[in-house]
Each structure stands twice: as C-alpha cells, then as structure tokens.
Amino acid sequence: MFNKVTAFLQQALETREPSINLLDSFVNHWKAITNYYIETTDESRPVKQTDIPWCLRQMLDILVYEEKQQGEETGPCMEYLLQHKLLETLCTLGKAQYPPGMSQQVMMFFSKVLSQIQKPVLHLINVYRPVQKLINLCGLPDSKTETEESQFLFAVCTRVRKDPYVLNYILEITKDSQKRCSSTSDEALEEGCSGASSPERAPSPPSPSSSTTATGIIPVLMHLGKSRKSRVVLRSMESLLLLVSLPQEDTGHLLAEGTPLCHLLAQRLTELYCLIPSSLSPADIHSYSGAQWRCVFAMKFQRRASRFLVLGVKMARAIHLQWLKGVIQPHLLQMSEAGILVHTALLSCSVRHIHSPALLEELVQFLLGSDTHCEKQQDTQTHILRYRLIEHCNHISDEISITTLRLFEELLQKPSKSILTNLVLRNLEKRSYRLPGSGVTDERHGVESDVLEESEELEEDPFFTDMYEDSGFGSQEPLLSLPSARERHNTRAHTQVADIVNSFLCLVPQEAKTSHSSQMYKCIALSRDWNWPDSVKTTETHPATDFYEGHFLQILFDRIARILEQPYELNLQVTSVLSRLAVFPHPHLHEYLLDPYISLSPGARSLFSTLVRVIGELMQRIQHIHNVTDKLMMIRRQLMGLEEETLLDHVTLLKGVIVLEEFCKELAAIAFVKLPIEEQ
C-alpha cells in the first residue's frame, strides 16, 4: 500500500506539477493531524482507525521526494518541519499516547525520516532534541512498543554510524554528567566485586541507571536487550555494535568515560551467565560452537571495542571485576565438585572465544596473576585461584582433572607470552635443572653441551637390564629405544636430531613430520613477537640449589608418572597439554622437555627422566601379564573402533601403555620437525 501511494504521488507530481504545491500539500497533511485533536470527541478510538497514519506517510513521501528534487539545498517542506518544530510536537503526542497507539506511529515516522532522508539532520537542534526525548520514552516498564522502539533506536545508531560527529548530541553528555557517570560506575564495580561471595547466587551490582525506567540510549538498548522478543534483542545488540564500531578514536573515550556502557554490558554478561543451567555436561559445553547472540555478544562487543584503547581497557576491566572476580571465582573456589566441573567447563569455553588483547590480559591476570619470579614449592597462597586451578588438574575427580586440563590447553593456545612465562618459563630461566658444571659452551652454536668426566660415567639403570629379553616381547620391536649411559657419554656437544628422536622412539612414521609441522609453525607464528632467545642462556657457575619445576609442571609430571593407572581419557588430556608445551620454540623449554642428554641436578626430574621411570615400572608389571602383546594389539584395535570392546584384565594398564607409546611417538615427531627449524 505504501509503495502504491508513493508511486501515485510521484506520478501526479511529475504529470501535473503546476497544479500541486508541495509545501501546501505538506502543510495540509499536518493540519489534518492537528485538527483531529481539536475536533475529535472519542478518546478511545485507536490511531489506526484515524487518518493520522496516512497523513504521516504522505508527509514522509513529500520530504523524500523534495530532497531528491532540491539536491543540496534544503526544501521548503523540510524548512517548515524544522521551523514549526513538528518533530517536537509529534514527540509530545506520542508521549501522551493519544489516540491509543500514537507512540508507535511517531516512532515509525522518526525511524523513516532518519533512514530515508539522506542529508545530515541529527545535528539540528529541532531534530536531535525531539530524538533525545523520544529515546527517553523507550524502555518503559511493560512497554507494548518494543518492536518499534528497537527499530527507531537502530535507525538512530545507523545515522550516527553515518555521521559520527552527532554522537555527542545523542548521548547528552556534559562534563558534570560524565564525572557522575564515571564515579557511579566505579562504585558499582567495586560493590559488585566485593558482594559476590556466594557461588550459589550471582551478584547484581547496582547500575547507574538501575531505576525502573532506563534513560539515555545506552541503558535503553541494554534494557531492550533483555526482551523476550528475539528480534528486539537482535536489533538492540546490533545497535550497540554500530556505536562501538565508529571509526573515530575519541568516540571510544566518549562511550567509556561518559556512559555506563562498560558497566551495564559487564552486568548483562553476568546476568546471562547466571541463567546457564548448572545441569549442563562438560562435553556439551566443550562442543559449543558459540553462534548464539545472547551468550557471545559481550565477546563480540569486546572484539569491536578493543580497537579503541580506553573503551577496550575499561570494558575488559569491568568484565574482570563483575564477571570473572564477582561470579566465576566463587564458583571455582567452592567445594561442590559438580559446581567446579560445570563452571570450569564454561570458563574454558569462554577462553576459546576471547580475541580481544585487553580482555585476554585481564583474564590472565585473573587466572594466573602477574608473578615473574621463580616459584617456591611451599608457596601456596601467592595467588590462591592459580594454585587451586593447578591442583584441580590433580583432583580426585577425573572429570574435574580432565576439564581443568582442557582449560589450560585453551590458555596455551592464546597469543599471550605471559601465560607461558607464568606457568613454566620463569622456573627454567636459570637452568638450575642442570647439574652444576656439567655444561660447557659450544662456540659454534652458542649453546652448552654436557661433557662427562671418566670418573662420572653413569651406571646402567637397573630397571632396564635385559629389559627386552625378560619383558615378554621376545624378538618384537622394543616399545621404546632408550640411550644407554655409554651412548650418553659419547654424545657430541650438539645433539643430533636422529639421536633425540631415537631416544623417544626407534621409528617415527614419515607422515608424522607433516602433521606436526603444521602445529609447529602455528606456535612459531604465535610466539614470533615474544622476543624469545634463539639459544639457551649460558649458565654461570653457581652453588647447587634445589630445582623446582613449578606447580604446573609438577602436576603434569606427577600425572605422567601415573599414566599406567589412570583412565584413558585423562591420559589423553595430560599428554595433549605436555605435547603443546613441547612444541613451543623456547630453547629452555625445548631443552628441559625434549633433550634426553642433559645431566640433571640432584633431585631434579625432566619429562624424559619421568618417562624412564614409567617404562621401568611397565617392564616389571607386564612380566605378570600373559600374552601381553596380543592383548595390546586387541586394545589398540578396540580404541580405533575396529573391534567391539570386550572385557579384559589389566585394561587400564594396557590402555595406558598405548597412550604412552603414542605420546613418545608424538614427542619424537615434534623433535624431528622442531630441531631442523631451529637450525635454519
């Protein structure tokens, strides 16, 4: 109907232009609206049963047509609308809701004027003042006009996106209101943080606009974002994204310091998080794709907002205080295993979808702290959340251990140097895991190599004396190829790739190099800007000190030491985290995890030495298992889905052996791919 009327009007204007005066027609339509209020006596008659909607459509059509005809100049109809404050009057009529339904018609008219008129108009006082008033009429309790409100606000934000300089007019920011908003937001953040002590209930920090009626475009959009109508929610969130996508940097500062945007959005994230049912399984959470708007909007917003330093930093800080510290932390520190499980899984999923550098920095501070000095074994209270999370990797509940290990694996995939430094590298900086005096500098490579005096020749490990003859494998290929003491003694200053690979496994499939090469290059790209050294740090002569690998590696090594006794799924997750650590191209990390030839200081252990002890235990235990090779092959086929699972004795042990073997293959493949890259 609307298109037909527009076409008719345009045709009439083109064919009978001398007999039609646009201004007269425009004024007549407006007078028809005002006369209705003078002449009508039926106050209950809905607006749709009057001529008001038709008159408003005709006025809009005339304005659009006039603009096309006038070009750059402002036409007489637009001049009349501005000089006689028609928008102001319409806003008043809409507020009165007389006749019933008038507010919808007013919002529709405003929306179409802002979207169809091409010339900038929002900077004009007789436009932005009624627009401001109409914005404050949105978001009322029990509103029946949410759809029209969301469309109107979207039109406003689209117009601001087109003409960014008008943002000041829409936000109604003054110096006094900016100071008041900033101080109120900070107080609300602090109160929300300190008030969230119970994991059973989410905090509800007071909002700067916590009254029943939201005022200002930001609070109104956040209010509409809670609507039960999905289209209203979508339009409101799209409007916010339009505002934070403005290209000017000063708009980010304006939104951060002059509006409660950061606080309200963090509060909404907290509210949505608390609506997630606690009955969700970790597997379902881990497989979540993150496509729904309601759950991931804050992350999408943060990614857009991070382009502006002030807005991104303040938004990240608000999320840290209100969501992470105010809600997540109490849940992670609670005693309920079910609560720990689901909230660790939710946090892991959230980490996967974080891309903003500012938010990632706040997340790392929240989970790990900022300490950079070497850890001490007895230090358990420096950062209580970090300590508890790492302890959860060694929890009595296998599910909690697996889920927490997944969280750390997600962290290790994020582009943050401080994560590796905090968890591992700070404890390897001094290389005190090496036997003092065991390394001399190799001038060709700028690294140290182990040189053993004749009097210090290592004895054979008793666990491995005649290991292949007595293990039951007979003439089969050995499970692992371990270097003897003599081989270690004859090692050259710079260990060769083949020697290291052969230390973990006799043979690595050729295709392993390709598969791990991809992951290797990803880690190199991830750490390219972290200014890591190219070679190991030359150690100075120092008295022997007790080496502590740090809480994180301690737990991982403890888990690997129990690989023959743990569930298959848990072993897979532990080895996955260790493999990811081994791939990173830091020379100390490589030496400690992948070099089997280093001479360890007294009491120190490395990944290789831990595996050696596991193999020693394995060789003793499999002597008491009949047909162990056949059973291992059967278990392998079952895990690959080639055979149906059947009941077998020692199934946990046998699955542990298979994971151990595959882990050693993986380490060998990493070394095979990694060392040539480092030598280039």
From TrEMBL:
InterPro entries (UniProt xref): FHIP (IPR019384), FHIP_C (IPR045669), FHIP_KELAA_motif (IPR045668)
Region (Disordered): 184-214
Domain FHF complex subunit HOOK-interacting protein C-terminal: 549-641
Regions crossing the membrane: none
Pfam families tied to this protein: DUF5917 (PF19314), KELAA (PF19311), RAI16-like (PF10257)
Family: Belongs to the FHIP family.
Protein's recorded name: Family with sequence similarity 160 member B2
Species of origin: Cyprinus carpio (Common carp)
